[in-house]
Amino acid sequence: MMPLTFASVGEQHIIKKVGGKPEVKKHLENLGFVAGGAVMVVNTLGGNLIVNVKEARVAVSAEMAQKIMI
Q1: What is the pLDDT of residue 30?
Q2: Most buried residue, 14, 26, 41, 62, by most Cβ within 10 Å?
Q3: What is the SS3 assignment for 11?
Q4: Are 33 and 14 in contact (CB under 8 A)?
């Protein structure tokens, strides 16, 4: 298990766990980051990530991406 920040661009991964404070977890779940869901990094910009999750493209800060374990 590793944080989403270590994922390579273009590789599909399954989310194993979402960490952080309850409000952070809820926010990430609302964006579609749920355990068992698929996620793919599309691009990285200055440490921040653009990912495909639930057929949507979402920008995630490096800090938030550290809380998403794949």
Answers
A1: 92
A2: 41
A3: coil
A4: no
